[in-house]
Design goal:
This protein has 271 residues and is α/β, with parallel strands linked by helices. Helices cover 47% and strands 11% of the residues. The chain folds into two domains: 13-167, NAD(P)-binding Rossmann-like Domain (Rossmann fold, 3-Layer(aba) Sandwich), CATH 3.40.50.720; 176-269, N-(1-d-carboxylethyl)-l-norvaline Dehydrogenase, domain 2. Helix 5 links the parallel strand 7 (139-143) and strand 8 (164-167). It binds nicotinamide-adenine-dinucleotide. The site of nicotinamide-adenine-dinucleotide has 26 residues, from helix 1 and helix 3.
């Protein structure tokens, strides 16, 4: 934990990590409060947001509330260790973290006798999906009673309370990567069905369309393999955590084979 630094502005809310999630969170929270500060280590992001009129910088000021939206668990840990907690702040982790992170933080807090409240409030933001953006979607929150109370007291000005679902910290941190691993699995099923169909000259899209007319069936699309920033990363988190699992391991293998299959098909068709 850093000691109080002279010259840093004392803002009430600081958002750390201004990427996809953090920059939109900064913009949305700014609509309701003017004491929000954004922190990132990337100068390009800082100059863009600053040119748009947002209050940003590369040092973490003393605040009452910290929202962490960096990409990886290691970065979350690095950021937490830099926070000045002399005024008993509320720390909200919106990043997706590895299971066990909450426990590690609690042990570190106890060992160092630090004072702060902390909740896990993993984001479910879906790019290009205005109906599931920053504050207009169901979200899960986990922490101890007092931390949850403080967090809800903060978020109630930004989102309807019925969208916030309280659970334990362990479930909150596991639910997010598990949701993404589950989606990974569903897409891998579609990829496997598509490869099997095409081997036998069957049109996968026609089959999928026919199957999906059933009310409780939803076969996903199979496109170019599972890419993007979150699904592969979070599926790896689950695969490593439940290292005896069969199904996620298979899904990862199927997706790998499917990507090679798509590449081969493109080479043959000259695309
Ligand atoms: N992008 C999505 O669609 C999405 C959806 C749901 C959840 N998430 C999760 O939210 C988290 C953030 O995702 P993202 O897509 O916004 O990531 P991102 O990579 O776009 O942004 C992360 C930002 O953190 C900054 N950063 C890294 N280390 C830092 C440090 N020490 N101090 C300050 N800033 C630092 C980076 O410069 C970057 O701008 C991840 O855990 C991700 O899995 C993302």
């Amino acid at each position: 934990m850093k000691q109080k630094k002279e010259g840093l502005v004392n803002n009430k809310v600081t958002i750390i990590g201004l990427g996809e999630i953090g920059s939109d969170t900064l913009k949305e929270t700014n609509k309701k409060r003017k004491d929000v500060f954004g922190v990132d280590i990337n100068p390009k992001i800082l100059s863009k947001l600053s040119s748009e009129g947002y209050n940003v910088g590369n040092e973490i000021p003393i605040s009452d509330v910290y929202i962490i939206a960096v990409y990886l668990t290691e970065q979350v840990m690095e950021v937490i260790k830099k926070i000045n907690c002399t005024n008993n702040p509320l720390i909200v982790i919106e990043s997706t973290v590895e299971p066990g992170t909450y426990k590690t933080i609690q042990e570190w807090k106890k060992k160092n006798n630090y004072r702060f409240d902390i909740v896990l409030f993993p984001h479910r933001f879906n790019p290009q999906d205005k109906e599931h953006h920053i504050f207009n979607l169901n979200r899960v929150i986990g922490g101890d009673k007092l931390s949850i109370k403080r967090a809800i007291n903060f978020y109630k000005y930004f989102m309807p309370l019925n969208l916030i679902h309280v659970t334990t910290p362990e479930i909150a941190e596991l639910s997010k990567p598990m949701e993404n691993a589950y989606r990974f699995l569903e897409i891998a099923i579609a990829e496997e069905i598509k490869m099997l169909c095409e081997e036998k000259g069957i049109d996968f899209n026609k089959l999928r369309k026919a199957m999906n007319t059933k009310w409780n069936i939803n076969v996903k699309e199979a496109k170019n393999g599972i890419n993007g920033k979150c699904l592969p990363k979070d599926t790896d988190i689950i695969n490593n955590f439940f290292d005896e699992n069969k199904i996620i391991k298979n899904a990862i293998e199927i997706d790998k084979r499917y990507k090679e299959y798509v590449k081969k098909k493109k080479n043959v068709s000259g695309e």
